[in-house]
Amino acid sequence: MAWLWLLLAGLSEVGWAVGLKYADGFTRLVPSVLTIAAMGVSLGMLGLALRTLPLGTAYAVWTGIGTLGTVIAGILLFNEPATALRLACIGLIVAGIAGLKLAHG
């Protein structure tokens, strides 16, 4: 169950990272409220995952999911470049997340 909490925490991190873009420096009310809510959800789920997962592993996976999702969202939502180098780096992040999961068991 901890890995599910961690996955959901990472996805919520993507939500608040994207929300920051839409909140425009917290000048737009609805995106700002949704962003802050996503932050709370993300941290709450990370806290649940940390009940059983090692801190270093959980934090690295959480930020990796957030980074991966945010880069993909940037490409899809904000027309950020999808160069071969960027995609290769995304692959390295995925490999790192998978490696940490395998190392933990």
From TrEMBL:
Key words, A-Z: Cell membrane, Membrane, Transmembrane, Transmembrane helix, Transport
Subcellular location, principal: membrane
A biological-process GO annotation: xenobiotic detoxification by transmembrane export across the plasma membrane
Indicate the secretion signal residues. none
Q: Where in the cell is it found?
A: Cell membrane
Q: Which InterPro entries does this one have?
A: EmrE-like, Small_drug/metabolite_transptr, Small_multidrug_res
Q: What are its GO cellular component terms? A: plasma membrane
The residues that cross the membrane are 29-50, 57-78, 84-103
Regions annotated as coiled coil? none
**Which membrane topology term applies here?**
Multi-pass membrane protein
Q: Name one GO molecular function term.
A: transmembrane transporter activity
One Pfam assignment: Multi_Drug_Res
Q: Which PANTHER family match?
A: GUANIDINIUM EXPORTER (PTHR30561:SF0), SMR FAMILY PROTON-DEPENDENT DRUG EFFLUX TRANSPORTER SUGE (PTHR30561)
Please give the family membership noted in the entry. Answer: Belongs to the drug/metabolite transporter (DMT) superfamily. Small multidrug resistance (SMR) (TC 2.A.7.1) family. Gdx/SugE subfamily.
State the name under which the record lists this protein. Guanidinium exporter
Which organism does this record belong to?
Answer: Nitrospirillum viridazoti CBAmc
